[in-house]
Amino acid sequence: MKLTPVMEKYVLHWGEMGTRWGVNRTVAQIHALLFLSSSPLNAEDITETLGVARSNVSTSIKELQSWKLVKTVHLLGDRRDHFETMKDPWELFYTIMEGRKQRELDPTMSILRECVLDSENDKETPVEVKQRIRDVLEFMENLDTWHNQIKGLSKSTLLKLIKLGAKVQGFLGSK
Question: Is 76 helix (H, G, I), strand (E, B) or coil?
Answer without folding.
Answer: coil
